[in-house]
Amino acid sequence: MSSEAPVFSRSAASTTRRNRKPVRPVVIGLSLVMAAAFGPPAATAGDPGSAGDAPYRGRVLSLMRHMTLQQKVGQLFVIEVAGRHATAVSDAAKAVNQRLYGVDTPAQAIAKYQPGGVIYYTTRVACTGCATDDNIGDPAQVATLSNGLQAASLAQPAHIPLQVSVDQEGGALVARFLAPATQMPGNMALGAGRSTQDAHDSAKVIGEELAAVGVTQDYAPVSDVNINPNNPVIGIRSIGGDPDLVSDLASAQVQGFHAGGVSAVAKHFPGHGDTGVDSHFGLPQVTHSLAQFHAIDLPPFEADIAAGVDTIMTAHVVFPAVDPSGAPATMSHTILTGVLRNELGFTGLIVTDALDMAGATATYPPNVAPVQAILAGADQLLVPPQMDTAYGAVLDAVRNGTISEKRLDASVYRVLLHKYRRGIFADPIVDPAAAPTIMGAPDHLAQAQTITDRTTTLVKNDAGVLPLAAGPRQVLVAGWGVGTTQGIANAMAARGATTQVLESGTTPSTAQIDAAVAAAEDSDLVVVSTNNAYAVNASTGQPTAAAAAQTRLVRALLATSKPVVVAAMRNPYDVASFEEAPTVLDTYGYTADQVESLARVLFGEVDPTGRLPVSVPRADGPGELFPFGFGLGY
To answer: Which UniProt keywords apply (predicted)?
Structure first.
């Protein structure tokens, strides 16, 4: 691969946004006015983009005319890098970078490929036994890493800054930045809260904190409509099971992320909410009819587009009713170009979901998937499993005409236009000293708790046990989650209880169940937490071993005749596994704030105002156990 490119003169300029740091390295200062060195050329009929892209179109076209083919191809890729510093990394990080790219450091990977963007991870492991990327430490470190990566990119001949992306959806499942970052309650909890303002504000907090550490793009919001209780990969990552609710709250989040200073990425187009297979490990099929597709799956994405979403991420799912060829959406011209571009009129960036997921690799070899995704209509290729192979395949495809230069330029234009519009060219550097004051700021933490307090749902209170009165009592806290059970116990103790914790994981053993029953006999109250006690094995149609064991634990505790409060800490469908439980609450996650909100609801300090954002089916037959919108109050 050649990385040669023309070097051209530039004038120095800099603009500064809030919490941004003036650019210091000479190479960065020279890079900030890339297009100013060339007078904006007159656009021709064959140029990408449109007159509506002003005032940036001329700058983008000027830049593109000075880019080599290799530099253009590089802009199509979003890569992972290992280590917490751009140029000085641990031996473990060097080993990861060597395995992925044949270089030691993130800066060297940027120099080798000149990619359009990078994505941060914490403990992502791309192969069994491999070390992790490990990018994320404290806020100042991440900000310094971001600046170093931008410096490495701007030092290349084309002087193009990076998109810096991350999956920070909020909630307990997909949050790369943990404490001190503010932990917002997540999508399904927001769905239970029903507030577009809370959805907007939650995204704005996340956006402000990401922008402070140099992240420019968040792969959120999830805009999938979760109508399959057995969905193994979406679940509480979805706002809920109603297209209107998902549309309202997802589009509010798009605007919130933008208000917070990062671009939003709606995912996973054309919809991953009714799948029984995790696309990380297989290729799911969505069996919706065309009518269902337009009524259920498309509305949230249409709302996101109307709200101004910058980027949409593809799903590795097959939609036979939309594309009978059997191609996953990521490689489907019918879906990406026919539906997303032509039918919905989306003009922004299309980024693939990670190309190293089995939903992509099981069907397409590493030299085929990137080319097919581009031909389908994708603009950016996220973490291909073999970067050298992927880069070379796209380069060869352009050279041999499989990918036309016009098609390549259309995507490169969109990538560069995005960077201009989002201010990345003008202001790529952040202030590491300011980052710790923004990430986890007191007002953010307070807002997170306030929003979370509006999301807990009381599903059953048949015995009238709730609300509890504060004061002395013996409480057994049993069930799933080391941190969760201890957090519940701490909250109960703060309100006068004497607690015992017997955590039993996702699959309680017979011995653990017996121990919990014995401890319950000496308690005044039992609080038992569950995590996916409704889960079903897709191949057998029967409850998973973990779900069956958790159900046995709950039923054994109910048989003690002691008051038992069941807290479903993840998906709200768990109640169907133990319909006889008289007291059940849903939290939609297990962040510290969600545990605190659970305690506040238990003691009547806040009213349980959350309403089910999904319907809960019966476990033993057709029909609903609880309808969408159900929820009790005090």
So the answer is: Glycosidase, Hydrolase, Signal
